[in-house]
Amino acid sequence: MTAAAGRHAGKVAVVTGGGSGIGAASARRLSREGASVVVADVDGEAAARVARELPGPAAPVAADVSTVAGVDAYVDAAVERFGRIDLHHLNAGVLGTMAPLPDVDPADFDHVIAVNLRGPFLGLRAAFRRYREQESGGAIVVTASISSLRGAADQLPYQTSKHGVLGLVRGAAMYGGPRGVRVNAVAPGLIPTAIFGDRLAGVEQRGGTVPMRRVGTADEIAGVVAFLLGEDASYITGEVVSADGGAFMVNTVTRSG
Ligand code: ADP
Known about the structure:
41% helix, globular, seven-stranded parallel β-sheet, 14% strand, binds adenosine-5'-diphosphate
């Protein structure tokens, strides 16, 4: 058990995209720390697999976060099963195809924006409606990315969606401040998960370019999420916490080291 065991005891948490990668690690972490966890994923089987292995109370939900019906489905499931929601990790995401700007497929752009930006928008909207209804606040973390903060030539839809996530987080944090709701972003760097598909091997290799000389793990992101959702972060809101082995600080123009 970690020192943080019990940190989220008695809390009800929703993790979207909880069927894989960072979301699954976050669901495991929150569960280990005492939360009841709703694992929501468009891949219902993956959500069920993760939920089954959690050490505490858990409920899987098949839900597409880019639709109002999908968001309603996981909120309703949480309320039905656990009576309330305290914590949200809005994490479901897709990478989209990597292509230079002239070759970006508008349909791909729309899909990435729908999942990565409309999804957290709907999720934040639903979270605040729920907090209003249950007359108590909570804490929310949205998964951003180093691509929320940096430019790259071949990931325009993803990068655009992740830049937008910071706008959502700051607007929601402004709204949430007086209402006792903290909203923050975690910005992972290179974390090899299924999101990279057949580019996974290349991601592992690029770990050598990071100041810490390695890629990160989903668990290392989950630790930040659990911190931001907990009382140790009680005065942190509207913040973007990078967990990237130092990748963000690198000056690529006069780079050395
Ligand atoms: P990472 O953990 O790096 O974000 P993964 O691909 O491992 O990458 O995890 C992302 C998760 O988000 C997957 O389980 C995937 O099924 C889920 N997901 C993708 N699109 C949606 C969606 N529209 N609604 C809900 N979950 C989604």
